[in-house]
C-alpha cells in the first residue's frame, strides 16, 4: 500500500512539472506595430479605416472602373488620396451606374495608404510620395 501511494505521488509530481514547463512564458521583446490592428473591417472596407463622409470634390471617379467592376468588390474603386497619405478615396456608384461620388476615407492611426495592396498599411509599406503626410 505504501509503495502504491509513493508511485501515485511520484506520478503527480511529474505531471505538475510537465504542466509547469508547458506554461512557461516566452518573454521576448514586443514590437508595438503588432498592436496596430490590421484586419478586414466588418463593413467590407480595406483594413484599418475610419469612415468620414467628406466628399473629395477635386477627384473624379474613373468611369471605366465603375463600368468594369460596379465597385462591388472589397478593393474595387479605391484610390490614393493625392492630398493626404493617411486616407484614401472610395468611389460609390451613383444611380446612373456610370459615374461615382468620391468619398474620403481615413486610415486608422499610424497607417498610410498602400495602393499596391489597396489598403491602409504601415508607413514603411506606403506607396505615398514623400512629403504628402
Automatic annotation (TrEMBL):
**GO CC terms:** extracellular region
What GO molecular-function term can you cite, just one?
Answer: chitin binding
Please give the InterPro entries that the UniProt record associates with this protein.
Answer: Chitin-bd_dom, Chitin-bd_dom_sf
Source species, please? Adineta steineri
**Pfam families recorded for this chain?**
CBM_14
The portions of this protein that span the membrane are 7-27
Which superkingdom does the taxonomy of this entry point to? Answer: Eukaryota
| Name of the protein described by the UniProt record | Chitin-binding type-2 domain-containing protein
Please report the stretch or stretches of sequence annotated as the Chitin-binding type-2 domain: 68-130
**Keywords (A to Z) from UniProt:** Membrane, Transmembrane, Transmembrane helix
